[in-house]
Amino acid sequence: MKQEGLLLVLSGPSGAGKGTVCKELLSRNPNLRLSTSVTTRAPRPGEVEAGSYFFRTRDEFMQMREEGEFLEYAEVYGNFYGTPRSFVREQLLSGHDVVLEIDIQGALKVKDRFEDGVFVFIVPPTLEELKRRLKTRGTETEEQVLRRFNAAYEELNFVLRYNYLVINDDVSLAADKIEAILMAERCRVIRNRGLHECLKGVL
Ligand code: 5GP
């Protein structure tokens, strides 16, 4: 018998840099798979279908929701985003770790349904830095930046629902910490039931 993969949920306010940390983790870990979400948001310049997202119309998204295709979904800044359930399930069963890079509402929905997940809250080092990151992204208007900043500030309150906190002041260090978290999670007694010859009859 082999250990099932871990479901890693990386979330935190927008501007925390979770996307960058996620890319770093993926480049280091061939066993880690990124779940590609479905969204009703229009593609940004350079975004291609099935790259950052599966782009769908609102009707198509609602149809998928009706058919129970999402592990979770949420409305974020006026657009819908959802995590396809089947991909996550298949990958975990085949022993791959799966990372979800999703917003806080979605992460908390997954937490209610999937206790075994590893929930990591990523925050920027300071509020000033958060504002700077939201601005320099350059893809949003001034009003959108302000909206995201206010939402991000409110969202910091949800940190208590998570298992781990990672301050993202250095991407490589943040990724090191998450790798250490995953390593520790794999060693938890509860995740090792029935896996080891030497503990037959005990675990
Ligand atoms: P963006 O439009 O900037 O790519 O993403 C906006 C927000 O939606 C980010 O916080 C991102 O993490 C979140 N997001 C992306 N995919 C999903 C998803 O499948 N479910 C949820 N709940 N949030 C998502």
Structure report:
With 203 residues, this protein is α/β, with parallel strands linked by helices. The protein contains seven helices and nine strands, in the order βαβββαββαβαβααβα. The strands form two sheets. A five-stranded parallel β-sheet has the order 2-7-1-8-9, sandwiched between helices. It has a four-stranded mixed β-sheet with strand order 4-3-6-5. Strand 5 and strand 6 form a beta hairpin. Helix 1 crosses helix 7 and helix 5 runs antiparallel to helix 6. The longest helix has 16 residues. The relative contact order is 0.21. The model has no long low-confidence stretch (mean pLDDT 94). The structure holds guanosine-5'-monophosphate. Guanosine-5'-monophosphate binds next to strand 5, strand 6 and helix 4. Guanosine-5'-monophosphate (5GP) binds next to strand 5, strand 6 and helix 4.
